[in-house]
C-alpha cells in the first residue's frame, strides 16, 4: 500500500486523531506522567542524534529487511503494546494486528489489550508477541502462558517498569485512574466524536478480553480497577524472571530496562533480549531519556544480548537515529495509534508504509545499504 499524500507526516496523523476521538481517549494516548518532562525529553534527545552521509560510496537501493530471533522482518520496527487500544479507536487491535501480519512486522499484544490472545494469534498467523503483566497467582500466569503458546506466540515480553501506577493528572481528571469512573463530561466528549461513537457502538465498549475468563460475573469500572489491583503485581525480581525462564519455551524479553544493572541481570538469567524503554514517559518524569539509556546499555552489552528500544520514537528518522545509537530493533506505540485514530481501517497499513518510506529515504541519503550499517553513520557527541 502506498501512503496517503494528505497524511505524509506523523504530526498530521496526530492532529487528525485529536479531532476524531474524545479528549479523554486522546489524552490517555498522548500524555505522560506528572509534568510530562520525560515524555518530551524522549523524542527531543533522539533528534539530537546526528547522522553522517558518505556520498561517494556507491550502493544499490537500501533494504529495511531485518532478522530478529531467527525471523526475517520487512522492517526494523514493530507495533508496541498499548493497553486499552479499543478505547482509543474501536477495533484498533485487530486493525494493527492484521496490518502487521500483512507487512511482516511484529505486533505485541498487551495483557490489558482489548482483544484476546487467541484472536490476535489467529490474525497474525501466530507471529504476534505477547506482553505479560505478571500475575500474583502462578496458576493464572501459567494459564496465560499456555494460551499464548497454543496461539502460536513464541516471543514473550515481560513488563518491568510498572512497580507503581504512574501519576498521570490528565487520566485522573478524566476518570481513567484505577479504579476508573466514567463521567458526564466523558459521555459528552464521546457524543461529540461521531465516528468514534458509531464505531464503539458497533464494536461494543472496550474490555480486557484476554482477562475476561478470570473475572467473576459482570464488572463495572470500579470492580475492574479493583480486579487489576488484586490480580497483578508490577514488581519483578530475579526469582520471578528465573521461574519464567524455566517455564517459557520460546524467546524471553524484558521490556522497561533503563539501567546497566538490570541489563546485566537479564544476561545472567539467560533472557534472549531487552527492550530499553521508560514506558513512553508515563512512569518516571525525571528519568533519563530512553535513547540515553540505550546508548550506554548497547555499548556495554550488544554483543551479549539483543538490545531493542521503544519510547519517544515517532518517525522514520527517529527509527534511524535509534538504530544508529545501538538498537537492533525498535517499537512504536503512539504513532500507530495516531494512524488508526486518524484513518480507521486504513491507518495501520498507511503508518507502516509511511515509516518504511521515511526510513528508506534516510538510509538512501546516508548511503547505507542495510540497517546494520547505521551505527557507523552516527556522529559522536
Q: Could you characterize the architecture of this molecule?
A:
The protein is of the alpha/beta class. The chain is built from 17 helices and ten strands. An eight-stranded parallel beta sheet has the order 3-10-9-8-7-6-5-4. Strands 1-2 form a two-stranded antiparallel ribbon. α16 crosses α17 (347-366).
How would the blueprint of this fold be written?
Elements: H1 10-20, H2 23-30, H3 37-46, E1 66-68, E2 71-73, E3 77-79, H4 85-88, H5 92-102, E4 108-110, H6 117-123, E5 129-132, H7 138-150, E6 155-159, H8 169-173, H9 184-191, H10 194-203, H11 221-231, H12 238-247, E7 251-257, H13 260-268, E8 273-276, H14 290-301, E9 306-309, H15 316-324, E10 329-332, H16 334-343, H17 347-366
List its traits:
381 residues; 8-stranded parallel beta sheet; two-stranded antiparallel ribbon; 17 helices; 44% helix; globular
Amino acid at each position: 500500500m502506498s501512503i496517503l499524500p494528505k497524511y505524509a507526516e506523523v504530526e498530521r496523523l496526530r492532529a487528525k486523531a485529536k479531532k476524531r476521538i474524545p479528549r479523554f481517549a486522546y489524552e490517555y494516548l498522548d500524555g505522560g506522567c506528572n509534568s510530562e518532562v520525560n515524555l518530551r525529553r524522549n523524542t527531543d534527545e533522539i533528534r539530537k542524534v546526528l547522522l553522517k552521509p558518505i556520498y561517494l560510496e556507491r550502493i544499490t537501493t537500501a533494504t529495511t529487511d531485518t532478522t530478529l530471533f531467527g525471523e526475517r522482518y520487512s522492517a526494523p520496527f514493530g507495533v508496541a503494546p498499548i493497553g486499552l487500544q479499543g478505547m482509543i479507536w474501536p477495533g484498533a487491535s485487530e486493525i494493527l494486528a492484521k496490518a502487521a501480519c500483512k507487512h511482516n512486522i511484529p505486533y505485541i499484544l498487551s495483557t490489558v489489550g482489548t482483544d484476546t490472545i487467541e484472536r490476535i494469534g489467529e490474525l497474525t498467523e501466530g507471529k504476534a508477541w505477547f506482553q505479560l503483566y505478571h500475575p500474583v497467582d502462578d496458576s493464572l500466569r501459567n494459564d496465560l502462558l499456555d494460551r499464548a503458546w497454543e496461539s502460536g506466540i513464541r516471543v514473550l515480553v515481560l513488563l518491568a517498569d510498572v512497580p507503581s501506577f504512574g501519576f498521570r493528572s490528565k487520566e485522573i481528571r478524566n476518570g481513567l485512574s484505577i479504579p476508573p469512573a466514567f463521567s458526564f463530561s466523558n459521555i459528552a466528549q464521546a457524543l461529540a466524536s461521531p465516528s468514534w461513537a458509531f464505531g464503539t457502538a458497533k464494536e461494543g465498549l472496550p474490555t480486557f478480553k484476554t482477562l475476561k475468563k478470570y473475572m467473576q460475573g459482570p464488572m463495572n469500572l470500579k470492580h475492574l480497577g479493583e480486579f487489576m489491583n488484586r490480580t497483578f503485581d508490577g514488581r519483578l525480581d530475579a526469582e520471578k524472571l528465573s521461574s519464567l525462564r524455566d517455564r517459557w519455551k520460546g524467546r524471553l524479553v524484558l521490556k522497561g530496562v533503563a539501567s546497566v544493572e538490570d541489563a546485566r541481570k537479564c544476561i545472567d538469567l539467560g533472557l534472549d533480549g531487552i527492550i530499553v524503554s521508560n514506558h513512553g514517559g508515563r512512569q518516571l518524569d525525571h528519568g533519563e531519556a530512553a535513547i540515553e539509556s540505550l546508548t550506554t546499555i548497547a555499548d556495554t552489552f550488544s554483543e551479549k544480548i539483543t538490545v531493542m528500544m521503544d519510547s519517544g520514537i515517532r518517525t522514520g528518522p527517529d527509527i534511524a537515529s535509534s538504530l544508529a545509537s545501538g538498537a537492533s530493533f525498535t517499537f512504536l506505540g503512539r504513532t500507530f495509534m495516531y494512524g488508526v485514530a486518524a484513518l480507521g481501517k486504513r491507518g495501520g497499513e498507511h503508518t507502516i508504509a509511511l515509516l518504511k518510506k521515511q526510513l528508506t529515504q534516510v538510509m538512501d541519503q546516508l548511503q547505507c545499504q542495510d540497517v546494520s550499517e547505521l551505527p557507523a553513520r552516527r556522529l559522536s557527541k
